[in-house]
C-alpha cells in the first residue's frame, strides 16, 4: 500500500539517486545533476513549511521513499498551483507515479481548495508524454510554446 507523507531527512540519499539518474532528469528544466546530499537535506528541511509549495514523498508499503510529488507556486488568490513529480528508477513502471499524481491532485483540490492545477513537459520527453496520455491528459497547447514546452491543466 502506497502512502503520501511528508519528506523526511532519511529520504535525502534516495532523492539524490533520481537526481543523479541522467535518463530520469535529462529533460527537466533544473540542473539536478549538480545537486548534492546537502542540497537534498536543505530541500527537505524547507519543505516542512508547505509554502510556497507543498512537497510530499511517495513511499511504498514499508515507508521507503520512491519519489517526490509537488504542488509548486501555490497561489491561493487564483486558486491554482503547478504540479511536478519525479520518481526513482526502481519505481518506474509500477504505478507509483500514477498513484502519486492522483493523490496530490486530490489533496490540491479537496484540501487546499484549488480550482486549477497545471504543469508543463518538454515534448522530447517521450516517457512523460506517454505517462500523461495514459493518465488521460492532453496538452492544452497543441504545439510547443516559445520555450518548447507542452502545457497541461486540470480543473476541480
Describe the protein.
- Helix 4 links the parallel strand 4 and strand 5.
- The protein is globular.
- A six-stranded mixed beta sheet has the order 1-2-3-4-5-6, with helices on both faces.
- The longest helix is centred in the middle third of the chain and has 16 residues, at 96-111.
- It has helices spanning 12-19, 22-25, 37-46, 96-111, 126-134, and strands at 3-6, 54-59, 65-75, 80-87, 116-121, 150-155.
- Helix content is 30%, strand content 26%.
- The two termini are 26 Å apart.
- The protein is of the alpha+beta class.
- The protein has five helices and six strands.
Walk me through the topology:
Elements: E1 3-6, H1 12-19, H2 22-25, H3 37-46, E2 54-59, E3 65-75, E4 80-87, H4 96-111, E5 116-121, H5 126-134, E6 150-155
Parallel strand pairs: 4-5
Antiparallel strand pairs: 1-2, 2-3, 3-4, 5-6
Helix pairs in contact: 1-3
Amino acid at each position: 500500500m502506497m502512502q503520501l507523507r511528508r519528506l523526511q531527512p532519511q529520504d535525502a540519499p534516495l532523492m539524490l539517486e533520481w537526481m543523479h539518474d541522467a535518463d530520469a532528469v535529462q529533460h527537466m528544466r533544473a540542473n539536478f545533476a549538480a545537486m548534492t546530499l546537502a542540497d537534498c537535506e536543505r530541500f527537505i528541511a524547507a519543505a516542512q513549511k508547505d509554502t510556497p509549495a507543498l512537497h510530499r514523498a511517495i513511499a511504498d508499503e514499508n515507508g521507503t521513499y520512491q519519489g517526490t510529488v509537488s504542488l509548486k507556486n501555490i497561489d491561493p488568490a487564483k486558486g491554482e498551483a503547478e504540479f511536478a513529480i519525479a520518481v526513482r528508477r526502481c519505481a518506474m513502471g509500477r504505478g507509483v507515479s500514477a498513484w502519486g499524481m492522483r493523490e496530490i491532485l486530490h489533496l490540491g483540490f479537496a484540501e487546499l481548495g484549488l480550482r486549477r492545477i497545471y504543469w508543463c513537459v518538454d515534448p522530447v520527453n517521450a516517457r512523460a508524454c506517454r505517462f500523461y496520455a495514459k493518465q488521460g491528459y492532453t496538452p492544452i497547447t497543441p504545439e510547443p510554446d516559445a520555450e518548447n514546452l507542452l502545457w497541461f491543466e486540470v480543473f476541480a
